[in-house]
Amino acid sequence: MIATVLTPILGAFVILCLGRWNNIQKVIAVAIAAFTSFLSVLRLPDILLGNIYTWQLSFIPGFDLFFRADALASYMAFVSSFVGTLIVIYSIEYMKSDAHQSEYYFFVLLFIGSMMGLVYSYNLILMYIFWEMTAICSWRLIGHHRNEPQHLLNADKAFLITIFGSTCMLIGFELLFQKTHSFNLAYLHGTVPAFGVTLLIILGIIGKSAQVPLQSWLPDAGVAPTPVTALLHAAVLVKIGAFAFARIFLTALVLPPGFKEFFLVLLLISVLVTACAALVENDMKRILAYSTISQIGLILIGFTLGNPVAVAGAIFYILAHGIAKAGLFLGVGVIDHYIKERDIRKLRGMATLFPANSLGFFLCALSIMGIPPFGGFFAKVLIILGAIEQQNIVLALGIGLGAILSILYMMRLWTMVFMGVPVDLKAGRKFDLMSLVVVILGILSLLTVGFLRYPIDMIANITNQILK
Length: 468
What we know:
By secondary structure, the chain is mainly alpha-helical. The chain has a domain at 258-468. It has helices at residues 2-17, 22-42, 44-48, 71-94, 101-120, 124-142, 149-180, 195-209, 217-220, 226-235, 237-250, 259-280, 284-305, 308-339, 350-353, 355-369, 375-389, 393-418, 433-450, 453-467; strands at 53-60, 63-69. Strands 1-2 form a two-stranded antiparallel sheet. The longest helix is centred in the middle third of the chain and has 32 residues, at 149-180.
């Protein structure tokens, strides 16, 4: 567990020390990311059987270095590190001509390490420290192209909005400490915080997850290199909010009376508004960004409902969405890398120029649209069934409408970009390492259900451990 946290963090500084030896940096970066993923999966079968591992070191009163590897943390670590490894592999080709590769690989590995530290943290302040580390990494990675003033402004915007949310969350933690005299989640089990304290903590969660009304930073973050946007949307950053909600409010605290209904309404608004925004947007990355906001809202709805069916759907969708959305962003990145265009009105025929990339993209799109037998379909059905189980028919219909909108905006993107005859037949590259990664992610989007028994058993074990 501790090795899973320290390996990418220390590896990031090793990368930095290698200076201009770019080829060695790439090999080491891939090796470190892959080893982190291997460590995250090493104990996963044992943990999913119900075993829990902890590591604790007394530090100062109220703040212990307390790490806990339970089913939820281990599952999130596996999903994030596995998708992160594929993104690092993709970066070899995408970033090969970049002038700041050392800095890029440093922050990517530090980003992954911060996520590992956050998911294993079982102390609110320790969680907050890693939470802020991800904010710093995302700020620098979004503004990676430092010679572009707009990129730096967008990076600052992302930093300020997420920092506003996390500051509110920290205040909420402090107010909670005044009542409970502990930041340790093990001692907070069953605590019902005040409505205002809960709202402060939730502001941090929706800020990081880019939910309405703190959503505007995520579409603007599309100025970052494509591997970074994939890392933000699929592997690390926006998943943090969903994880934090599950960790804090499903395994420890209890939502105060009336807050659940309020939050479900807010999340449903976020799901529908951002899905509509994706339907009218013309920039490929911004379409996918609005899609991410909508889909993360769906995951948060599943966790907020809190019953076993809905929670299982949310957990499953973390995996299905992480794999599929990484494939979509990386697929768009192949086109942007070679064609230098992201406006869907100026693109067509990309399936002819990049057939392998297009295949992987289409498979990932089917999962996000919720088309059976892809993972996204089963996850959405479970969340809808969870809403119906609580007799919240309006919410179930709203989720269904959001699913229909996801089909519309993804098909619009596909038909305008990939169908038809390309303007320049010489512009494309038939196959490369980047396209290979997209194809792998597309196949995995299908295999999450092709090997359905193990994912369902795994998710059932995680759900039972969270809700017991």
